[in-house]
Amino acid sequence: MYPNNSYQSLLSQLTANLQPKRRVFVSYHHQDQTAVDSFRDTFSNVYEVFSDSSLDRLIDSNDTDYVNRTISENYITGTSITIVLCGLDTWKRKYVDWEIHSTLDRNHALLGVVLPHVVPVLRNG
User: Fold this and answer.
1) Which of 55, 52, 50, 51 shows the shortest CA–CA distance to 29?
2) Is residue 6 a part of any domain in this protein?
């Protein structure tokens, strides 16, 4: 009834319907965009584990309270976890700090993931 390649497609559709995707906020330093794109593609598109609710651009304001409120209300709300993708300079980014703060204020889960290109640097000290 179905050609072989359609079985995989049918199985994927059935599996996707059994387990709802989690809405996830991914926090990162834009310097690591290539690694972040790979992470998103793998876990959001290939494995369909989550749906990404991250910022698509910086919020154009110097008002820290406004930026924090916008991140919290428009991006963190509705998610259950924030995944912080940790590159070499992620710790320096104020947006990452604000995103973590908003996540913790909402009592959402927080997970840090060290990006693969950082591991050799950590090992070599």
Assistant:
1) 55
2) no
28 secondary structure, DSSP code: -
Residue 100 contacts residue 42 (beta carbons within 8 Å)? no
Query: In the structure, what pLDDT confidence band is assigned to residue 1 with cuts at 50, 70 and 90?
Result: very low
Count of other CB atoms within 10 angstroms of residue 50: 19
Domain count, the chain: 1
Look at residue 63 and tell me if it is in a domain.
yes
The strand pairing partners of 111, in sequence order, are 83
Residues 35 and 65 sit within 8 Å (Cβ to Cβ): no
> In terms of pTM, does the model score above 0.70?
yes
Q: Which two tokens stand for residue 13?
A: 């559709």
Instruction: Report d(CA 110, CA 117) in Å as an integer.
Output: 21
Q: Which residue in 62, 39, 33 sits closest to 52, CA to CA?
A: 39
Cα–Cα dist 116/125, whole Å: 15
